[in-house]
Design goal:
By secondary structure, the chain is an alpha+beta fold. The chain is built from eight helices and six strands; from the N terminus they run H-E-H-E-H-H-E-H-E-E-E-H-H-H. It has one domain.
């Protein structure tokens, strides 16, 4: 039975935030996606429905990440899959709760590449996360959270429930360049624009073949980026 619909945007935000943490997400934010939704690899019918997105993150386990040296490990591969499973399942549950409130919601898979040549999924989770105020895109082309660095993974839920969007953060890497020194592909430069997507992907293909992980993952710069607040 559909519950009473509250039109107060702030109350909607508070309710969804509460639900997200009940579902054991580590990060929650709301984004106004009107400026980026035409970039989504989704039908126009879907794009036209939604002006908001929830960005939701789950922190990775330090015990797994700290074991990485210069290549992905079987432990990281298993952890990566388990976290993606958690994200997809919890995002579905949150979307179902939104639908029960009389609104529409569409969970987008945490890790589903539909364009391998350009390494793209249905949406850019990191761009949604950036708009939702969860962090900024660092030199290594990943979202950086002030507390967690890049040691988390993201999932997104598109929705039409009225919500106040969070404010994006400014670039916060400062003088930190640990990701540059750690990158086994030497794909990271001083500026985000210098990031070598092709060089990174070629190294991922190499790891997939010789490191017994069976997937295009690395994790080295994830380990290097532990968060600026942890360096104080």
């Amino acid at each position: 039975m559909i519950q009473y619909i509250c039109m107060d945007e702030k109350k909607n935000y508070q309710k969804l935030e509460k639900w997200a943490y009940e579902l054991e997400f580590s990060l929650f934010g709301a984004a106004d996606i009107r400026s980026i939704k035409e970039e989504f690899n989704l039908s126009q019918r879907v794009k036209d429905k939604f002006d908001r997105a929830l960005s939701l993150g789950k922190r990775l386990l330090d015990s797994v990440i700290d074991d990485i040296i210069d290549h992905p490990t079987p432990l990281y591969f298993h952890h990566y899959r388990q976290v993606n499973y958690f994200l997809d399942r919890a995002a579905f549950q949150l979307a179902s709760r939104i639908q029960d409130q009389g609104y529409q919601a569409l969970p987008i898979a945490a890790s589903q590449t539909i364009d391998w040549e350009n390494q793209q999924g249905h949406v850019s989770h990191k761009k949604i996360g950036e708009l939702a105020g969860l962090g900024w895109i660092g030199r290594h082309n990943l979202l950086v959270n002030p507390k967690m660095g890049s040691r988390f993974r993201l999932v997104s839920v598109l929705t039409d429930i009225p919500l106040p969007p969070d404010e994006p953060l400014g670039f916060g890497c400062g003088e930190c360049r640990e990701c540059l020194d750690s990158c086994p592909a030497r794909a990271i430069g001083e500026k985000l624009q210098d990031f070598d997507h092709r060089g990174c992907f070629e190294k991922l293909k190499e790891f997939k073949k010789i490191r017994y992980v069976g997937q295009y993952i690395c994790g080295v710069c994830v380990k290097a980026c532990s968060g600026p607040l942890n360096k104080v």
